[in-house]
Automatic annotation (TrEMBL), chain A:
CDD domains: TM_PBP2. The chain crosses the membrane at residues 12-34, 72-93, 105-126, 203-222, 259-278. GO terms for cellular component: plasma membrane. This is Sugar ABC transporter permease.
Automatic annotation (TrEMBL), chain B:
One of its GO terms (cellular component) is efflux pump complex. PROSITE patterns: PROKAR_LIPOPROTEIN. The keyword Transcription regulation does not apply. Residues 147-174 form a coiled coil. GO terms for molecular function: efflux transmembrane transporter activity. The keyword Lipoprotein does not apply. Keywords: Coiled coil. This is Biotin/lipoyl-binding protein.
UniProtKB/TrEMBL annotation, chain C:
This is Carbohydrate ABC transporter permease. Pfam families: BPD_transp_1. One of its GO terms (biological process) is transmembrane transport. It is a multi-pass membrane protein. Residues 91-277 form the ABC transmembrane type-1 domain. Its main location: membrane.
């Protein structure tokens, strides 16, 4: 890219950015900064600065630690599972198949189905008296209270995968199709095995896509809160108590300080994650270029 | 990407989408969605429970409990007035000095008359002595009678004089018979009062009283002997006073507006006002001050309360509209139901219901439409 | 992969077909059950949420998962569409909330994306990172300050309290920037030679080329905001303004029969939209994701 073309666009850029930037700073940036400030004050109307007190109190609070742990656990396990599954699916779908279009459409369809529309289905499947337990009973196993046990997070993970696998699969499919065929052919000729080809060609050339998929998957892993909320309410089983539950409940109990401190911490974690990802991605790009 | 989307499929989808939208629009127009919007909207309040507060606030004038009218005893003209209205006086203090010159003149005349009589007496005595010397029995007798007569005259005159002297001493001025305050002064210098009292003196030791007209609902909850402490003076010195009720008299029922039937929501005032007399003990009062009285009584038992606004009246009874809910899975249908109620108590804001409602039951406060009827469908 | 035999292709197709069917199951289940009679639904699913232990010695009782109804009925639909005064009103409420958001965010997002993708200015990448960060934040992070701001603006209980943050969401900027950075400069260059300004380049060249991206974004936004539950729950207390998602969130617990019908109707616009725009959608998503 030639630099001359891009230099001195500041004014034009400002015009193009203005509408978005005004609203964005009013409705996102400013609230965030207010929140940041609030997290360092005590709850009194005057609001004197108390430093890190809110954070210390927050980190001492058991429910916050539990919520943070659960969120981390869910994102940490759910996202890799989702990516692995959708990558597998993409690799499989990237072959010549019968009904390929139909299969692809079916897998993508859950993406557009509103959560509230299918909550009942999940309920019927995973309730104490639900179908899954009915099948368990039929094969002679004791039933499990899915939503009230250690299993609950897996159930939520199933919903998460169900909803998001299509999106990731599409992204990976595009990534796969952008890899030149002859890379594989050359590798085959040189006697590389399937696994070798997958690791050293597919994964490497998918890495930019991977970055994007990872971002989207993380966003969507936060959105799973809605399913949990609709299925289990404000105070779900311990394992399902996510940061969003925590913040939601802090909001309704008007505990602004804890909420904003939690929000800031969450922001910090996501910032770390994103900058880490960016660094890795840049290195990869240099490597592939 | 292979192009799977043939134009015929796209056309089909477009048709399907169109049909779907048409179905929704049609149902919106034909179904209950719009019809429901046309229903009168009602505003609800839930029946509370508690006691009913009967507040009263009014003003009254402090009246002395006992006062004495000082009249001009002799009908003399007023010479000097020593006090003003509002002056506190002590027992024995002179109040008005009267013009006694006429009586004094009369006294002088009488005294002169007496002197004359005394002189003529000595003449009569010398006459008698002469007659006695002359031995003329007849003459002697005449002279004796004359002396006796003159003696009687003399004593009469003396009594007159004494009377006048006493009058002069007593009626020259009026004095305060007790400690008190001059509340009214009618006397004017140079005139004799014509029958009406020259001044009115209140007896501060006996205390003061106020009288006020209190609505029946509040008055019914008052008792004789009850202490009231929400009395305050109006004016610069807004002191707090205390008083006790000494008398409650029902005044004649007011003319009740009998044409106030229908759904106006106005309560026909059934209870007449009462005149309540309250005694105030306060030595600094003089009488005539304006005071503000606030009374706030709670009904004895707790009952279900409904805003007056929600209560309607017909010829015979009171009723409210409650809400009948047909709960369907997709939101509820509501109907206004006429529910007769018995009003046990009420003040100007709420009415206490003794029968017909249960606590927290929702009643219709008012509706967007002018009137409601039993069974009418509404929306909330 | 030419060496693939017909048999293995068939087997793989069948396996993936089965998987696809499993993916479709919740959707198909909802749609099919919406034609079930109330009585049958009660019979099948009444045990949901009841924690009672199985009677001693007796058979444990379970809900009866049933895909095909015994009797077909459209009563539930009649209930929802004609008898209920609320459903359609809330449906239009949803539309009225979502359409401005989709239109606004797509437009404003594209404008900003143009600046991020095709212009160079000081702090561009840092600013873009801020947008990305915001996009990643769950809604709850800025809940309190947002609440305060809406309160200050007097927008509580007003549709704008939902619409405004929607319009200025960062996702549109992110997605369109990703998409636009693949559009070659050469095309812009040609237009520039002809003397076109940035406005014309954006409107005449970039936007038409970004059509798949716009379609994908619109669909994604539509789905996302059609789905929202938490925002209206907090910002729209007035029942007359609430969108359908809240209605469904409440209905699912009480009346399952009409719940299925309402759910099916609720997902229908999304499914139709998706099927209609699928090829654009797929292309848009793919192009936005190929390179970071």
């Amino acid at each position: 890219m030639s630099k001359g073309r891009l230099r001195g666009d500041g004014f034009v850029a400002a015009i193009f950015l203005a509408p978005s930037l005004i609203g964005f700073s009013m409705l996102y940036l400013l609230p965030f900064l207010i929140g940041l400030y609030e997290s360092f004050t005590d709850g009194t109307p005057g609001g004197s600065i108390v430093g890190l007190e809110n954070y210390i109190e927050l980190l001492r609070s058991g429910s916050f630690r539990k919520a943070a742990q659960n969120t981390l656990l869910f994102t940490g396990i759910g996202v890799p599972i989702l990516i692995a599954l959708s990558l597998t699916l993409a690799v499989l779908l990237n072959r010549v198949l019968y009904f390929r279009g139909w299969i692809r459409t079916s897998i993508m369809l859950p993406l557009v189905v509103p959560v509230v529309s299918v909550v009942t289905v999940w309920q019927i499947l995973f309730d104490w008296n639900g179908s899954l337990n009915a099948w368990f009973d039929r094969v002679g196993r004791a039933r499990v209270d899915w939503m009230q046990s250690y299993w609950s997070m897996s159930i939520i993970a199933v919903m998460y995968v169900w909803k998001n696998i299509g999106y990731n699969m599409i992204l990976f499919l595009a990534g796969l199709q952008s890899i030149p065929r002859d890379y594989y052919e050359t590798a085959s000729l040189e006697g590389a095995g399937r696994l070798y080809r997958f690791r050293h060609i597919t994964l490497v050339y998918l890495s930019p896509t991977m970055f994007f998929v990872l971002l989207i998957s993380v966003i969507n892993s936060f959105k799973v809160f809605r399913e949990t909320y609709l299925l289990a309410g404000d105070y779900p089983y311990d394992r399902l108590y996510m940061l969003q539950h925590y913040m939601n409940n802090m909001f309704f109990s008007l505990n602004v300080q804890k909420l904003t401190a939690a929000a800031t911490l969450m922001f910090g974690c996501i910032l770390l994650l994103v900058s880490g990802l960016l660094r890795v991605e840049r290195q990869f790009r240099e490597f592939t270029d | 990407m292979e192009e799977r989307m043939t134009s015929s499929r796209r056309k089909k989808l477009r048709l399907l989408t169109g049909l779907f939208l048409a179905l929704l629009v049609g149902c919106t127009l034909a179904g209950n969605t719009l019809r429901n919007l046309a229903l009168p909207r009602v505003y609800l309040a839930s029946a509370g429970s508690g006691t009913i507060l009967h507040p009263y606030e009014g003003t009254a004038t402090v009246m002395p409990k006992e006062s004495k009218e000082i009249v001009n005893p002799a009908g003399w003209k007023v010479a000097r007035i020593l006090v003003k209205a509002g002056d506190p006086v002590t027992q024995g203090q002179p109040l008005i000095v009267y013009d006694d010159s006429e009586t004094r003149e009369q006294l002088l005349d009488m005294q002169t008359e007496l002197k004359k009589s005394t002189l003529s007496m000595s003449l009569l005595q010398s006459n008698y002595r002469e007659a006695a010397i002359s031995g003329d029995e007849q003459k002697k007798e005449n002279a004796r009678v004359a002396i006796e007569t003159a003696k009687l005259d003399l004593s009469t005159q003396q009594r007159h004089i004494q009377q006048l002297e006493k009058d002069l001493a007593e009626n020259r001025q009026s004095v305060a018979p007790f400690d008190g305050v001059v509340t009214r002064l009618n006397a004017a210098v140079g005139f004799a009062s014509s029958g009406s009292p020259e001044l009115v003196l209140t007896d501060s030791a006996k205390g003061f009283a106020i009288e006020c007209q209190i609505p029946g609902d509040v008055a019914n909850l008052l008792e004789i002997g009850e202490d009231l402490d929400q009395i305050s003076l109006i004016g610069r010195d807004s002191r707090q006073l205390t008083g006790a009720i000494v008398d409650i008299k029902e005044s004649l029922p007011e003319q009740v507006n009998s044409s106030s039937g229908g759904n106006t929501g106005e309560l026909p005032s059934v209870l007449p006002h009462s005149v309540v007399r309250i005694e105030i003990k306060d030595t600094k009062l003089q009488g005539g001050e304006r005071v503000k009285i606030a009374i706030s009584k709670e009904s004895e038992n707790s009952m279900i309360t409904v805003p007056n606004e929600a209560i309607h009246y017909d010829e015979r009874s009171a009723y409210v509209f409650t809400l009948d809910t047909d709960s369907g899975p997709l939101g509820n249908a509501y109907r206004a139901v006429e529910t007769p109620v018995t009003i046990a108590d009420k003040n100007s804001f709420v009415a206490g219901i003794s029968e017909g409602l249960f606590p927290q039951q929702e009643v219709i406060l008012h509706s967007a439409k002018d009137f409601l009827m039993d069974g009418m469908r509404v929306r909330r | 992969m030419a060496h693939q035999t017909r048999l293995s292709r068939l087997l793989l197709s069948l396996a993936l077909g089965a998987f696809a069917a499993a993916m479709l199951f919740p959707i198909a289940f909802t749609v099919l059950n919406s034609f079930m009679t109330e009585e049958e639904i009660g019979r099948n699913y009444d045990l949901l949420g009841k924690m009672a232990e199985a009677p001693a010695g007796g058979q444990a009782a379970f809900v009866n998962l049933k895909l095909l109804p015994d009797w077909l009925t459209i009563r539930q639909y009649a209930q929802v569409l004609i008898l209920s005064p609320k459903f359609l009103r809330m449906f239009w409420n949803s539309i009225a909330l979502v359409l401005p958001i989709v239109a606004g965010q797509t437009l404003i997002g594209s404008l900003a994306a143009y600046a991020f993708a095709k212009l160079r200015f000081w702090g561009r990448d840092q600013l873009f990172l801020v947008y990305v960060m915001t996009m990643l934040m769950p809604f709850q992070v800025t809940l309190v300050p947002n609440y305060l701001i809406m309160d200050r603006l007097g927008l509580m209980d007003h549709e704008l309290a939902i619409i405004l943050p929607g319009i200025f969401g960062a996702f549109g900027v992110f997605m369109m920037r990703q998409f636009m950075s693949h559009i070659p400069y050469a095309l812009m260059e040609a237009a520039k030679m002809d003397g076109a300004g940035h406005g014309i380049i954006f409107a005449r060249i970039l936007l038409p080329l970004a059509k798949p991206g716009l379609a994908a974004l619109a669909v994604l936004l539509f789905v996302d905001y059609w789905n929202m539950v938490e925002q209206p729950l907090i910002f729209l207390q007035d029942a007359a303004k609430q969108p359908l998602s809240l209605f469904l969130a409440q209905i699912n617990q009480s009346a399952r029969g009409v719940g299925f019908a309402a759910s099916a109707l609720y997902m229908a616009p999304m499914v139709l939209l998706f099927l209609y725009a699928e090829s654009y959608f797929v292309e848009g998503i793919q192009q936005s994701g190929i390179k970071g």
